[in-house]
Input
Amino acid sequence: MNSLVKRLIKGLIKGLAIAILSLAATPVPAQVSINEVRSPAQQKIAWAQAEIGRNPKRYQPFNQLAIALARRARETSDVNYYAQAETALDKSFALSPDNLDGLKAQTWILLGKHEFAKAAALARQLNERWPDDVLIYGFLTDANVELGNYAEAEKAAQWMLDIRPGNVPGLTRAAYLRELFGDIDGSVELMEMAYQQTPPTELEDRAWILTQVAHLRSQTGKLSEAETLLQQALVLFPNYHYALGQLARVKTMQGRHGEAADLLSLRYRNAPHAENAYSLAEALVRAGRPADAQEFFTEFEVKGRKELELTDNANRELIFYYTDYANRPAEALRIAELELARRHDAYTLDAYAWALSANGKNNEARTHIERALAVGLRDPQLLYHAGAIAARAGDVDAARNWLKQSLEANPVSEFSGPGRDALAKLPAFSSAL
Amino acid sequence: MIGYRSMIAVLLAFLVGVPPAALPSNHREAPITALDHKADITDIFAFVSYGPNQKSNTKPSKVTLILNVDPFLEPANGPTLFPFDPDILYEINVDNDHDAVADVTFQFRFVTEYQLPDIYTSVVGIGDNGANAPGTSNPVVPPQIRDFNNPGLNLRQHYNVTTIRHRHPGRGHQDFDDQGESSQLRNRDGSPFFAVPANAGPRTMDYSKLFEKGTYKELNLPGISVFAGTVDDPFWIDLGAAFDTANFRTLGSGIPGVLTDQEDSGPYLQGKNFASDTVSGYGVNTLAIEVPIELLTSTGEIEPATSPAATIGVWGKTSRPRVTVRRSPFSATTAGGWRQVQRMGNPLINELLIGIGSKDRFSMDQPKNDAQFAKFFLDPPIVRAVEALYGGALKVPAAPRNDLLPLVTYAAPIAAPGTAAGPIADLLRLNTGVPATPFEQASRLGLIGGDPAGYPNGRRVFDDVTDITLRVGVGGILAKGFNVFPNNRLGDGVNLNDADYIAGFPYVALCPDGRNRRHVDPGEAGGGPVT
Output
């Protein structure tokens, strides 16, 4: 689940912008058979390459290629496309230094690579030069959300809604902020508006939005609605890695752990990332297959540690792995400190607090988890963590309050079982009384 | 994401569609307002009121503020004509303490109703008694519309006007949560304010009667008058020449876009057109209010022209309800607030100076934040473009153009010595202590024509902001050494409105009638040459 949350967040960043950046409609190039099934990004890659062949001195097709490659990265979750996209951008800038669309694509790729501080700095520069550009506000929103600068993110997202009411990138970003601020219904409202405005030909975009709505629905325990939406997403975009991950989460909440493990296994085959191995291993634990789980935990740890110093990493999963499964709390805290130096968003604060608590630093942990929750989000995992940390710190009343809130937010979440157990173990009265 | 892509396409269309030498007339200047005609501010006027028998040097007593929206209304274009948009909040703001933040605001909101919802058109009428079904006494067509209670005025709008005196001068009170001391304007007899419809034609309505009845002067607050409706667009310009990359006509001087002394001279009322007024025959929606000066100044007094407190800054603004990232827990009372669609102070700033990639942000931001656009004010790219078009025949001042500062700060010759300059802001600045010039003596060239009561000291409906802008903004005649020929004779050749302005509130001209309206084209009588 942890990796799922992260993937969903990544999805938002890697998200809609790329599709939107492509300026021209993209008919299928003549040399591509109409019978050949290609994703929207693949079609755009082919078209851009054909354009480059025809006009190698024009910078615009290189931008379009960069954008299409970055979009393909989202479709597949294969980050190698970003390197190819950067190569295309180098050519664009060689032909036309400082061109706007190239700089926008560059910002987008920085976000995709999780270079949030650099992306925020570049987006700020671009915003000063071209304050009417809606998508640049989107980049400002994305980068600041990830860095934990929520006030700036909200300001930028509001400009998106004001300057072009009803624009899809603005709606999706505002929806995500509403979720972070604890307004799940309001988030669904905006996501549904975004879905209605996304044309049926944009299959992956529609699948992405459906997956987001399903995430929001499952976050409040509305599992059958979420499952229906995810099945629709998988019809639109078969084997879509985000939808597979979210559907697995729904299955987990339904107690169908074997099915969840199968879905995550399929996703891992399609998208063999460290964090996807971690989700799979956790699902296998729940499915009662500890030996299989160990295999993927091991694979996860090897892969995750290779990315440890990179900005695009699985450090959140590593932290939880070392606290919850491998009993290496000191290593968890070391990694959490590394991450906190880069960003202070609610999820990073949560992981840091959890690592502190695992090391017995419960009072310090409480400060950080409460700071995370002060953003407003009603995430059952964070609320459960807050309760567990308070219990360890001996504050029974606070623990009961947070644990109840976790169960109220979602009575069937992956944390509802541990939450109920923790509540049951609390003394009937506060030890302070 | 084709939804967004198509928006980008629209933006690109504007990039290639707007020539570098776009000229005044705020008709659809920014991408966002081009998509929202109803909220598009075409002009704002602010001037010391005058009457038909105005004497020179009469002490000023009232100021008239006029906000025009929704450009190029073709009065023949039924069946719905051009109602105001009930979803838009229309506002005129006044800064009286020189911080570019509103101290007094006038808000207009409209309500639409249908009197005959089964009838196919918004206005219908004939004769004194209407028309019956043949052989019966069953009325089918109502009588000619001469008042607002005639059911033939099928689509009928009434409106509310709120005046607000903000409580906290200088403290970000442009937001709507600070309502300050607000008063609702009302007719003394309790009747609503009706908006005057466009003039569909002489069979349907007696437009002049509606215009007269829709000019409300007996209100609960004495000395205030209000008017809202579709009227003749008071603006005039050779727009076709201006938007063909400043391809102005060649008149008596032999130099395109340069007038002779004879073509240029004389009071407005003695002027003549040497080129076609592209806006002729079109209507515009106007919101007008006349108020005692005491209601506008920071001191609550009529101030002499020499007093810093005499000068105010005016801007118009249109807003729509907004979707907010954060939903209010009290949405029923706050309704998520408003998003500003457009604002306007001077008649040239956004369309002439602001870069196309910044126009929407400019439209939606607050005047007090205009320092971010200073690069455009003080080094307007258009000036170099026009210089290039003249191929060396026109010398213009070098940047920074500090000679343009009186337009964007409180400065001489408009504001009295000792007036705080305030932040750089696009406000229409008016010294309320300067007496109105009698109409028959007034110059269309305002201040630069030796008429102290005209633009850029406020703006009257007949001020030729096109020629003034060409001379001041491009020709730089306020800069030392540039008040020379041809800089001080730049002009489009349109010197006169096609319809007669009224010399009293609401000062605009009557709406052309849809059946017989005339758009004057080049080559026609009164339309000047084609070349």
